[in-house]
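Hi P.,

Sorry for the delay on this. The queue was packed all week, but I finally got your sequence through. Input first:
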Amino acid sequence: MSTTVAAAAVRGVSKTFGARKALDSVSLDVQPGEMVALIGPSGSGKSTLLRSISGLQTVDGGKGTIDVFGIPVQKNGRVTGQVRKARAKVGFIAQQFNLVGRLSLFTNVLLGALGRMGTWAGLFGRWSAEDKQKAMAALHRVGVSDYAGQRANTLSGGQQQRGAIARAILQGAQAVLADEPVASLDPVSARKVMELLVELNERDKVAVIVTLHQVDYAIRYCERVVALKGGKIVYDGPSTGLGREKLIEIYGPEIEDAFWEGVGP
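Then the structure:
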């Protein structure tokens, strides 16, 4: 009988910055095809957790481990030698878009193919005709193919973020880690980006883990919500279970700032 390998498996992970414990013995499983929001007040550890899953942030030494699709990412406080193999399966979308500003949007999307290209081919940008076709298809899918030839740093935040999603599509990512992807966007662009992440999850069965400051977006777009406070998971369940009392317990005085319009449920 086959068993499903978790898209992300976090076991007993801690991370300390000076005297502050950003993560405190956190364990979490996210299954393939799930769409999970990480929420919590400022400094709760949600971005640290997401960056740790990708191997961008090392965790404290000890018993804590992180695997992605069964591939070890971190162990004994170190990133493993297999992290590159794991990252080939994961697209990362950052708050500040994470595109190369001087390159065209088209070329930025093509960078998603680097994981399956040879070193020299990637170094000299020898993209295959198939990858070029797929890049344009991905840009068309997210609605920014008209801007393919523009330098990324001339585009709006929403256009750049859609380009980052197109890059993950071209990469063939089995999971997407999105760190505050709508924090720098206006509400209209933010909704479009969230809708694209939902579509990627539902149509392509890609696991999506997204950190969000806007609780209303977490409730609207994600079936499962994991809330952190003080480096610990204090809620893990359906978004429908997040009533006002639970949110006040999680956010305290920050509750009114945790909604886009500044008004809670």
